[in-house]
Amino acid sequence: MAAKSPYAIDFADGGVGLIVTGISHTEEDVMDLENHESKVRRKMMKRKLELMVNDEPWDIEVDPHRTLLEVLREDLGLTGAKESCGLGSCGACTVLVDGEPVLSCLTLAVEAKDKSIQTIEGLTKNGQPDPVQLAFVDHFAMQCGFCTSGMIMSSKALLDKKRNPSREEIKEALAGNLCRCTGYKKIIEAVESLIQD
Predict the structure, then answer these.
(1) What phi and psi, each to the nearest 5 degrees, are found at residue 9?
(2) From residue 11, how far is each of 8, 22, 23, 111 by CA, in Å?
(3) H helix runs in 46-147, sequence order
(4) What's the first-to-final CA gap in the chain, in angstroms?
(5) pLDDT digits (tens, 9 = 90+) for 121-177
(6) Domain hosting residue 35, numbered range
(7) Is the domain of 23 the same as that of 63?
(8) Which residue intervals of the chain are DSSP H helices?
(9) pLDDT of 25-65, one tens digit each?
(10) Between β-strands 56-62 and 100-103, what pairing exists: parallel, antiparallel or unpaired?
(11) What phi and psi values does residue 125 have, to the nearest 5 degrees?
């Protein structure tokens, strides 16, 4: 038999209750109270957040522990950024935040407040793919496609900052993006094809 709480009381009908703040409650009352408190705590934890994603404002409520990747994929339906390692090692989740490549699996959504977020979906303008996207297609710089959005976003960030990067700078910019299919040669060639003198 379980130890009896010093606050427990036995009712004449055989039930057991608890005395909380001088008032006796049944086990069912206590369970209801705990459930209510749990719901209130969860609601209090959610934060209203305005995100600017692909030049479009989004007003959402998020738990502060949720990553930018989770919010983009699950709440906004933007599934271009992929979850692969979940450790920030592969780059498949790369998006641009204020023009900088960011691993969205390691970035809390609340950290992106008041910042401009760009995903692979936001590169297409008026139905036209971005030149980086076209270069990847033209140079067959993808196979399975799982890493492609992260590769493109990292390449886009580099080319937006530097119009004529060296091969070493391209490799450095893509160092955080892993591809298990292409061997990188075609990816680097795709980026090099966009270099402007």
Answers:
(1) -130, 150
(2) 10, 16, 14, 53
(3) 68-70, 131-138
(4) 83
(5) 999 999 999 999 999 999 999 888 889 999 999 999 999 999 999 999 999 999 999
(6) 9-45
(7) no
(8) 27-45, 68-70, 131-138, 148-161, 167-173, 185-192
(9) 567 766 777 776 666 666 668 889 999 999 999 999 999 99
(10) unpaired
(11) -120, 130
CA distances from 193 to 128, 144, 189 (A): 18, 22, 6
The pLDDT score that the predictor gives to residue 43 is: 61
User: Who's near 35: CB < 8 A, 6+ residues apart?
Assistant: none
- Same domain, yes or no: 154 and 96: yes
Alpha-carbon separation of residue 102 from 13, 26, 39, 192 (angstroms): 63, 52, 33, 22
pLDDT of residue 174: 96
Does 2 fall in a domain? Answer: no
Domain count, the chain: 2
